[in-house]
Amino acid sequence: MITKMADTLYIPDKKITVQGIDGDNAPILLEFDKEKKILVKSEKGEKSEIKFADMPLFLKLFFFTADKTSPESFAVSVKSIAGALNDAGINTELSTISVSDSDGGAVFAIGKEKRFVTANVLELSKESMRPAALKTGDEIYVFSDYHRSVLPLVFPGNIKFFKNGVFQGEWIFLRDEYKQK
Questions:
Q1: Residue 39 CB-half CA count within 13 A
Q2: Which distant-in-sequence residues (6+ apart) come within 8 Å of 176 by Cβ?
Q3: For residue 156, how many other CB atoms are within 10 A of its CB?
Q4: pLDDT tens across 39-86, in order?
Q5: Where does 76-154 show beta strands of DSSP type E?
Q6: Which DSSP letter does residue 179 get?
Q7: Which of 27, 41, 79, 178 has the most beta carbons within 10 angstroms of its beta carbon?
Q8: Bridge partners, 43 (sequence order)
Q9: CA atoms within 13 A on the CB side of 117
């Protein structure tokens, strides 16, 4: 399932740039250089460089170094994502069909053996195989609006962050025609 997810999220560009706003309408820019394996995050007037190994798990799902012309590199990226999920307490050997808490859609829940078990989990949309939610410990990341996202369209248009069930913030990467006026 992780291979299918990576395949649906794959962007061939050597540098991936996604621009949007945070919950306060402040600009946010994410720039990932596949060759250097560095993510540059520009937010609230500050730039920070994050090495791939130190990148937060929710971003590793979208920014990885695979090259489809090199099946070996794709396999390495999938193994890296699976390792990061396991390190976060998500048992990638377990999965079940479940229902997303955020929108009620059908999902594949990686990390759970049965639907009603509480566990750290990565939920993939059953239709698209793209991440719908990532739940680790007391943190939840909900991904939505892929079809409304800025280019590249395989990035979520909306990422919401929760800690201990309390909304912490969101990043919005919607194309102009979908932004609220």
A1: 22
A2: none
A3: 27
A4: 999 998 899 999 999 999 999 999 999 988 888 988 999 999 999 999
A5: 95-99, 106-110, 121-125, 131-136, 139-144
A6: S
A7: 41
A8: 28, 46
A9: 16
Tokens of 79: 């193994």
pTM: 0.93
Alpha helices in 20-117 (DSSP H): 57-60, 71-87
Tokens of 18: 């996604």
Which pLDDT does position 181 carry in this prediction?
53
β partners of residue 3:
none
Two structure tokens written together for 54: 């130190």
The percentage of the chain sitting over the pLDDT mark of 90, rounded to a whole number, equals 79
Angle between helices 2-9 and 71-87 (to 10 degrees): 120
Tokens of 76: 């390495």
- Hey, CA dihedral for 173, 153, 34, 10, is it positive or negative? positive
SS3 annotation, 2-66 = HHHHHHHHCCCCCEEEEEEEECCCCEEEEEEECCCCEEEEEECCEEEEEEHHHCCHHHHCCCCCC
**Confidence class for position 23, pLDDT limits 50, 70, 90:** confident
- Residues 96, 106 contacting (CB under 8 angstroms): no
Beta carbons of 122 and 110 less than 8 angstroms apart: yes
